[in-house]
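Weekly puzzle thread! Below is a chain. First person to post its structure in token form gets bragging rights.
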Amino acid sequence: MSVGRGQELWSEVDAYICERLVPEDKVLRDVLAACVAAGLPPIAVSAAQGQMLHLFARMVGARRILEIGTLGGYSSIFLARALPDDGHLVTLEVDPHHADVARANFGRAGLSSRIDLREGPALETLPRLAEEGAGPFDLVFIDADKPSNPDYLKWALRLTRVGSVIVCDNVVRDGAVTQAGSADPRIHGVRQLFDLVAGDPRLSATAVQTVGAKGYDGFALIRVDR
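Winning reply:
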């Protein structure tokens, strides 16, 4: 076994996983290329992680999905493809340029009719969704600004039902999540999310550490039990 190769080895393994288990997809390649051409930051989930989200959505039989943090729509497409014909994805994006890129990508993927992209700060959009009776959502994917994670979780719980699943990305952050004295507000946001989940008897949860093309991080997996 190779020792000390770190990121190089993780990326090689990710490439192997994608080659064997995640089918080649011209649409998704074009979506990533469009994101790069538009100057979006390279922070979308990896193909393997996108496929994981897709499988989660299918496993829970999701018909309504909420995504907090669209970026260029790469993860949105994995999620929307898991929906039945009458299913619906609502995705929230604060940056107008990112939203424009995502809309074009949804059209490229033939999914515009299945995806409702709401532009603006999520903490302003989420109350409107509640007022509209947009839920309950079967799956919520939280992948936006990390300091707001606690508030996103609270809204996700208002917009879900018993049996719904909430997935939160970037909860390990190169291991910095263990640093209680960190001055990084992103770390505080993740730690507060963990504290909220740990103290809520309605929830069952775990977190899974990940390594791969996106480095060392992890996902929190939360189920609403009651």
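Puzzle host: Confirmed. Bonus trivia for everyone else. The longest strand covers residues 160-169.
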